[in-house]
Amino acid sequence: MQGVIEKRGAVAVVWFDNPPVNAISQAVRQGLIAAIDTVAADTDVKALVVACRGRTFMAGADITEFAGGPKPPSLGEVADVLSASEKPVIAALFGTVFGGGLEVALACNYRIALNTTKIGLPEVKLGIIPGAQGTQRLPRLAGVDFALKLSTTGTPVGAAEALEAGAIDRLVNDDIVSAAVQYADELVVDGAPLRRTHEMVVNADTYGPQYFAAYRESVKRKIRGMHAPERVIRAVEAAVNLPFQEGVEFEREMTRESVADPQAKALQHVFFAERLANKVPGLGKDTPLKSIKSVGILGAGTMGGGIAMNFLNANIPVTILEINQENLDKGIGIVRKNYEASAGKGRITYEQVEQRLSLLTGTNVYTDLAEADLVIEAVFENMDVKKEVFKKLSDTVRPDAILASNTSYLDVDEIAQVVDNPQRMLGMHFFSPANVMRLLEIIRAEKTSPETLATILKLGKNIGKVGAVSGVCYGFIGNRMLRGYAQEANMLVLEGASPQQVDAALYEFGMPMGVIAMADMAGLDIGTRMRESLDESQYDVRTSYVYDRLVGMGRHGQKTGGGVYDYVPGNRTPIPSPITEALIQEAAEKFDIPQRSITDEEIIERCFLSLFNIGCELLDEGIAYRASDIDTVYINGYGFPAWRGGPMYWAEQTMGLERALVRIREFAAIHGDKDWTPSPLLVRLVAEGGSLRDVVNPKPTDNGAG
Ligand code: NAI
């Protein structure tokens, strides 16, 4: 039962217990209102503490209520009742006080918290805005800067920052409810005022139109394309300019608009897709898990160091192996520098830097990895090198230790051939920078056991990654799709669009940067080197021509001061290059490609329908379990705008499968079938009127591993 009241002297404590996160269900809302009524009627009680059992104070709305619409009383009504109380109401905060949970706290008179508490208004991440007076109460209580920061980014803040802003009144180290009761007693004895947040006012002179214009400018890039952050800014602006009740009305209007916005639907799809990606058909609660208490890493280059940081952050010791002391020192030095930079920005303390580094050991000998529970390989992308190191690993580590490769393209099944007990082998494909990017593409090889897969899925979650499983194919889900996408971008350039037009169109669509500028950032030499080991039939000689010529001239991208674009030293802004323009002309003539003017719409359709068509192939081949896994990969690993729902969702919901197929066939007629053969799955779905949502593969590959 929600809302059980316990009396501690003159203070009533109302308890909520709705595991796992005390979501604010109808019963919780009713319990809050009933508690206020009970306390009002009891003359012995002088104050009320709102308390929760379990691991957190109320962590938000009850998402299971989303489907049928919220049942009465609404949380806004609850906030009205709480804030009208004639006796002080104190919220006892701990854990993750998010969304509706924070709105409940804001409707109370005082807030006390454990110093590990995090508070946040994450609604914008689901395309909506706080809808229970949060946008009106928070600026009044903690200032406009703080309210905007919390509500437009959706990123939570720690208790110390919340205390400084005034969103929390007092912090304690432990025993939050006793501390809250004591605080309540003090407030009663002192005759403290009721401090109702809705009676506070914001200084409209300080926060005039100019302030908001400057704020919008400062977040323009970050919130590009998204509607919810602008709605939340307007609601906070209303808190400055309108009386409370009118502000609440305005917040309601903004809430209605955002709920009806297709972006909210797309973002909710993403929310559920990420959770679903962790649930793998065939794996259940009874799949045994191995415990990973120590990790070995091979290679301390770009990826190895970043991968190590994920584990150090989660308090898991890491031993990292390099070919020589120099590379080891260099790699560990970069890890230290990264941590120190975070400390410099106040994200972690210098104490934490040392604590994390104390968990990192460097070595040049394999025997130091003998006791690791998991070893992740991140050495050069070369099959012979990979086989050599896995053979050595297999001979050194415990027979039950899990072995993983971070390879981008290589065949994990082939690598697994050199390993004893290959059921413990899989791919763990991190994205650069590995300590920042959220995606972990988990490659299930032919013989990978359910236990290995389930262990790594769980571990991925523990280190804060979004996991998605792929079967084995060239480039797995992400990079195989990337190839088609980049191929179209490069073809469009040969057909007459400039690199800057292509990149600008992709950026406008919502990508963090254009794919051509991205190639300059990664280094054009990587592609050239890779093609050297391939047969000409395995890549397109037309689109690689310009890149290989540029590399031949020493133009390897940003790192050499020029690639497709020119760069001014110390500046990453791409500048169109006459050298590249001349090479594009040369290539177009050489391969007899007529130049024409190209619309941005064609750029978007060609690039993203290619991505989508390959996505359908991956589903049809059983490489991906579901379309939503592909969306998860593209959003978290490649920066596809989440508010568009991912490439598969975008094509189906925004364009429609039928129209997508028509366009793909039109492109095939013009550009040939090689890159534009429609996926048989897409053809089937259109013929049968089916949906991508209904396609679920039992396994990514028929691996017979059970
Ligand atoms: P890198 O060249 O920066 O680092 C590789 C490191 O491995 C070097 O420090 C090298 O000394 C070391 N190494 C080479 N052979 C070794 C051996 N036998 N034993 C121990 N250490 C050895 O390369 P990077 O970029 O870190 O790539 C590593 C792997 O990660 C590759 O398979 C790559 O395809 C993959 N990858 C790379 C991404 C990227 O953006 N750089 C993204 C995702 C995966």
List the helices and strands and how they pair.
Blueprint: E1 4-8, E2 11-16, H1 26-41, E3 47-52, H2 75-83, E4 89-93, E5 96-98, H3 100-107, E6 110-114, E7 118-120, H4 134-142, H5 144-153, E8 157-158, H6 159-165, E9 170-172, H7 176-190, H8 209-219, H9 228-241, H10 244-260, H11 262-277, E10 295-298, H12 302-313, E11 318-321, H13 325-344, H14 350-357, E12 360-363, E13 374-377, H15 383-396, E14 402-405, H16 412-416, E15 425-430, E16 439-443, H17 450-462, E17 466-470, H18 476-495, H19 499-509, H20 515-522, H21 524-532, H22 541-552, H23 578-590, H24 600-620, H25 627-638, H26 647-655, H27 657-671, H28 673-676, H29 680-688
Parallel strand pairs: 2-3, 3-4, 4-6, 5-7, 6-9, 10-11, 10-13, 11-12, 13-14, 14-15, 16-17
Antiparallel strand pairs: 1-2, 7-8, 15-16
The structure holds 1,4-dihydronicotinamide adenine dinucleotide.
